[in-house]
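Exercise 7. Predict the joint structure of the components listed below.
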Amino acid sequence: MGLLAADWKSRLASARIGAACGLLAAGSAARATTYDFSIDVRAVDSDGRNSYLDGGQGKLRYDKDDNGPHLGRLRAAIAQPLGEVFSLHAEASSWGDYDKSPIDLTEAYLEYRPYPRAGFRTRVRLGAFYPPMSLENRATGWETPYSITPSAISSWIGEEIRTIGLEGQVDWLGTRMGHSFDLQFTGALFGWNDPAGTMLAMNGFVFDDRQTTLFGRVGKSSGDPDEAKREMFHEMDHRPGYYVGGQLRYLDRAVLNVLHYDNRADPTVSVEKLRNFAWDTTFDAAALRVETSGEWTVLLQWLDGSTVIEPNNFHLRWDFNSRSAMLAKGFGHHMLSARYDTFEIDRGAGSNPGNEDGHAWTAAYSFEPGNNWRFMLEWLRVRSDVKARPVLLGEPELATETKLEISVRYAISGSW
Amino acid sequence: MAAVALLLAAGPVLAASVSLVVLKKDGRPLVGAVVTAEPESGKAAPASPQKAVVDQLDLEFVPDVIVIPVGSVVSFPNSDQVSHQVYSFSPTHRFQLPLYRGQAHAPVVFDQPGIVTLGCNIHDNMAAYIVVTAAPFFGRTDDKGGWTIPNLPEGVYRIKLWHPLLKDPTTMLERPVRIGGGSNDVALKIEEVTRPAPLKGHPHSWDY
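Solution:
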């Protein structure tokens, strides 16, 4: 009996030592840090009006004064696992135009991603990141793989919207359990997005692949000393905003995404330092993407919302909406895409200087022979009727702007 | 079970071998289907356990389907530079396996028959399946939907069939088949709708 007890004690001790060694081994194992670097250079031929980035009311990143070569984007991203279920993610970019800092962050967050259990997976993100809204900007760096310039909707999200807060997601992984569908629910609380809406009111919808960095701004000021600072990520009223969303996936063929966003800004609050109000911005968004084994992709996007400020209790409201339809066809490493966007901003009165409407056509060809190089050619024409043009700039309301753009991107990714 | 229509071709019944062809509803071959055969008497012992490998290569499981006898061990070596976190929440065998570079993991033992769905907690698009069987005969159909057992005793066999693209991939389709002496040509036609194959060819930079 005594011998048996001693034997069990010895086995227990061995098991403890074994477990401790296992823990040590797990602690010192190489959890690979992954990185991405890319450089994207452009050649542009544009007849665009003076760009909204340059104090004008043009709709394009590159206007008629910007013809020639440009740095489109220099990007570095890193993902660092912390233990088994936590990881840090950071995305930094230099856009080569109107950068406040030579390089700045577009996203930076801590992610908690435990293993799925019983068909459900939870994910929590804390930090600064995009809401899970775009089915278009599905590539690394929140880029669209279908064109150089994203839709009006994604352009606006990249310009003014970022979650700086806490987001929780629950996935029901139906396809892992014999079903044809997966479901996802998302909810978030965030701050530091009270200026969202400023650019829609000042410049309307635009077409631009440039994303506003966390400490950066949108282009340069028009020179008016009273103009709002074009910085999007500030907390002004100390009221958190929220969004809730859902996603339904059919196998890997179709995705339907819906999102309701409300930054719950107090529209009576203004901050002198920013020369800006807290813009009470609310919107609903939906998107549907369908892909076929014949390499066809159909992408439909819809956005409808409003933004309000109340200077001296004077209620000012801008209603906005945009719709987008895209068709793409892949041919192995090659892809052709065509997209149609409509957009509208309505201040209520018929000829109010805040009103605009317009539409745009985009056609793109891309060649992505591997994971390093990507070549893309894009033609984009946007026709817009902006009531502010004659009032602010003495320009005609109507403008048709066309650009042809070539992008050559080199990317490397790996781990250490 | 009713979804499988069995077309037993007439033929000489002298030698004990079976050639199986699995066809989809549209008449085209079902490639890569897992097929197992066990005597209905239940007297046959399972095949001997094996050592199998499911690698992680270029952000995919390779191979993405294996069939192994009960008691087999599977190793997950991870030939990628990046980490993977392999998991299964299938009732047959639940496990979690963090695969970090430079850290070899002990193989996983699969000691219950059933279907195990594998995923990666880091790369959502990765999926693979391990079919654990207690049957003495098992294999996968070739690119013509065919599978042959050259030498087996006569008798009534329970043929089970599984494919990841079956409408309900959590269960195996089942059909008794009488194997007489001689060569037996058996055509199994799946009446169920099969799902479309996963899309391939998107660059890794998509859907980050």
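Discussion. The longest helix of chain A spans residues 2-28.
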